[in-house]
């Protein structure tokens, strides 16, 4: 008999009432109530498991009923309705095959474990309810993103990870090499001879796919990337990891207002998608991780995002009767405390736009005032900055001037600048950190718990 | 007026007959026929563009009609049916705004360019018909893969790219570092002091997500990865790149036969998806790149894939009246010429299974004969090996023994081996190189033309 996924069984159990099925999975718990016993079983295909009832006269009952959490079993039995019970049906076992029983050495015993401990068990923690829920929401959100962009005519582009050009600056990138560190080749002037490396020059793993994305947007009009990204930041905070996933759409013939329309529509699509398909997981997370999570998400779908200039945000912050740790300033970035205040002030997501040019990147469109750039950050309640985007400078001379002003090395990005000569047009794009989104959707407050195997300074296990 | 995507217009032009629309995109060609002129325009949202008709009395007619390929324009005009013409409608322009005209310095002039030349123009080549088609099929195939797995209850997992463990061997991996090559720290015994590196030890970018994928399969039963992968191979062939994308599903409680069922179903789903949504592109590629492409793909969808043991394949090859470059042998891998022969022999895709253990990896399930492993390669006509998979060894003692026999360093994969202690079960998985798939789907015969910005030895531009 072919086994059935527990998720499928939970969805269609009425089709199986009175029939024999086989399920295979892992024991959450087993307990003996004298003449019979229960196994809570899940195969991970869904958030919810299934209850298997075993009669004490089963051959291997004594072994089955003392199974530890994490043991693998294959159960065959009949589906029986259980009205007035907490689950609508159960499996009355005919046979429970023990495949691999765990013993006391199994790191995840029944007692609740701390997140810190579970990070040390990254290969096992997806078996816990919390991480089952988080990684399931993560998978749903990824699919929502692909669906949103594909349904709206965007091309999915795999921009390169290995690069010699980068929009975030090479001091923030990991160098890669095939050279042997303890047997390096040297040039005559005593430098490491990178011409002997596989690519014949210094190469990196990238911090952004934006530049390559723009090249594709100027061919396909609407593109998105969705891939891993790397930063060398040596900082141990709850929101920084050295490896994370990014979504970077670029849209030709689209200005800043059009970009905000897209960001708002996309975010609502993702949230709606997750609410529709992950309610069991969200309700669990609402109960144990972030009270009010479901209400927060429902509200976003139905809200109209505020759009406000950076200088007007500073006005609001200055007028606020708050003692700031960092004093708000027209020429400066805004701090975490400001983000928090402003999203609470408007009671919902806020687009902050038209930022002082000196704190933003060279590729952003210079506004007519000569002082600000057409950049926009989306701030969301409880998570701060979720998306950063801008209209891109499409004028060749202006972008070259900005590079000069900001001491940007243009030797490896001449092709990028040339895009401004060959059929250039108004175009815009944004970057959304995927883990930030997952944290927002799940209420998880540490990025290490939103990534399957997180990489942070001094921490690259598994 | 808000602009409309050309793809949308081509799909629903009857809704717009007699109405005014605005389209924005790039000129493919412009030509003057005395009292009026034509612009072939595409915005890249679809494979097919739109014809814009301009009257000679238009203000800027003289400039419009001499526009070079690649110039960007915004056109407003009425949609008019054009029966008996090659396209069912055209836009009668009221206004053509020239946004950025290209001149003679534009690298892609109207004449056809060689693939070699276009590789040097990787940032512009998506504007050509061939690469428009290839990258569009690539995007469709990626979505097909996500749809197939998500619809069938698989969890999408982002396995880490930065790793200290790898299933393909560290000599095939790029090392990453934040250290300055020309100012390296040393330990007392004169070795480079990697404890000073960001992760405090030697780390790499990965050649596979399989090991981490297995950990997740033993929690969620059915998972898939889809992400970039890296190999340091210093080989310049048509099928090797140093950076490529892989799909690596892992399935718990699934044996080799079950794995082949999944591979066959998935591949047919992808091909069907691309046939349904990319026929314009496929017909173009059929005409200019690989004659018979569409027929080849249609045939795969309706075929039953052959399943045959490695030793029986060797029998067939030995009996063949062919003078081989490499003599087929029971203990050996099969060569390109053998792959070609065997797919032609069976006239369709062939699963070759149960390979000699000595030429396969330590993690593959040892068969009862003690000589072969439960591995399977899928060979497809015209492209050779497309997918490689196996049942994984689920027995702790057996996998540890295999590691010893094959001198596998287990110090960084103890957690992976421990999966065999904690609720282990029969499980299987495969890896499909995404570029190989794209080559198969498009008929493109060089991997450099199936990747947006290919990375090969001495070649890391853009």
Reconstruct the topology from this structure:
Two copies of one chain form a homodimer.
Chain A: H1 6-16, E1 20-32, E2 36-42, E3 50-55, H2 61-65, E4 72-81, E5 89-100, H3 115-119, H4 129-151, E6 155-156, E7 162-163, E8 174-177, E9 203-205, H5 210-220, E10 222-224, E11 226-230, E12 243-247, E13 250-252, H6 256-277, H7 279-288, H8 293-302, E14 306-309, H9 310-319, H10 336-346, E15 350-356, E16 372-380, E17 384-392, H11 396-405, H12 414-418, E18 427-433, H13 434-442
Helix pairs in contact in A: 4-6, 4-7, 4-13, 6-8
Provide a descriptive summary of the structure in words.
In chain A, α4 (129-151) crosses α7 (279-288), α4 crosses α13 (434-442) and α6 (256-277) crosses α8 (293-302). Chain A has helices at residues 6-16, 61-65, 115-119, 129-151, 210-220, 256-277, 279-288, 293-302, 310-319, 336-346, 396-405, 414-418, 434-442, and strands spanning 20-32, 36-42, 50-55, 72-81, 89-100, 155-156, 162-163, 174-177, 203-205, 222-224, 226-230, 243-247, 250-252, 306-309, 350-356, 372-380, 384-392, 427-433. The relative contact order of chain A is 0.11. In chain A, β4 and β5 form a beta hairpin. In chain A, the strands form three sheets. In chain A, strands 6, 10, 11, 12, 13, 14, 15, 16, 17 and 18 form a ten-stranded mixed beta sheet that branches. The first copy, chain A, has 13 helices and 18 strands. Chain A is globular. Chain A is 31% helix and 24% strand. Chain A is α+β, with helices and mostly antiparallel strands and 462 residues long. β8 of chain A pairs antiparallel with β8 (174-177) of chain B, so a sheet runs across the interface.
